[in-house]
């Protein structure tokens, strides 16, 4: 028997072959924002060594410096999931979790690139 997935069901399935951006939202305990950023930096140093890691950014909320957002870009869902569930990441994450007011949240997005043909001029 063959089943046909609806477009909505297909959209829900991870597309393994596409670049993903992972947004990780942290809320530091009062006075711990700098230590959270350091813990995130330590994590990023290891993440950069992982297969499929493309780049990472750490953003500090202008209005609420205890809110730290990490944007991590990965070659595909599988590479992110391998890092996310690795014993090394789990161990390093324990350090930052102790500094957080509440558990961090993770959202994953497929990266859509708009391709345009542009002519650049130096004139």
Give structural notes.
- The chain has 123 residues and is an alpha+beta fold.
- It has a single domain (17-110), classed as Alpha-Beta Plaits.
- Helices cover 33% and strands 29% of the residues.
- The protein has helices at 7-12, 33-47, 77-84, 87-97, and strands at 20-28, 53-60, 67-74, 100-110.
- Strand 2 (53-60) and strand 3 form a beta hairpin.
- It is globular.
Uncertain regions spanning at least 5 consecutive residues: none
Largest sheet, spatial ordering of strands: 2-3-1-4
Number of strands: 4
Major sheet attributes: 4 strands, antiparallel
Shape annotation? globular
Number of domain units: 1
Provide the helix percentage.
25-40%
Overall mean pLDDT stands at: 87
What's the helix count?
A: 4
What structural class is derived from the secondary structure elements?
alpha+beta
What is the name of the CATH architecture? 2-Layer Sandwich
Care to give the gist of this entry?
The chain is an alpha+beta fold and 123 residues long.
Topology (SSEs and partners):
Blueprint: H1 7-12, E1 20-28, H2 33-47, E2 53-60, E3 67-74, H3 77-84, H4 87-97, E4 100-110
Antiparallel strand pairs: 1-3, 1-4, 2-3
Question: Which labels suit this protein?
Answer:
single chain, 123 residues, Alpha-Beta Plaits, 4-stranded antiparallel sheet, 4 strands, 29% strand
């Amino acid at each position: 028997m063959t089943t046909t997935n609806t477009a909505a069901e297909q959209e829900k399935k991870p597309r393994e072959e596409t670049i993903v951006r992972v947004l990780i939202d942290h809320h530091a305990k009062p006075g711990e924002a700098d230590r959270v950023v350091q813990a995130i930096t330590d994590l990023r140093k290891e993440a950069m060594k992982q297969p499929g890691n493309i780049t990472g950014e750490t953003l500090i909320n202008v209005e609420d410096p205890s809110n730290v957002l990490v944007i991590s870009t990965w070659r595909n869902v599988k590479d992110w999931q391998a890092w996310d569930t690795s014993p090394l990441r789990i161990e390093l994450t324990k350090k930052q979790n102790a500094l957080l007011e509440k558990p961090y949240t993770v959202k994953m997005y497929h990266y859509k690139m708009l391709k345009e043909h542009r002519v650049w001029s130096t004139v």
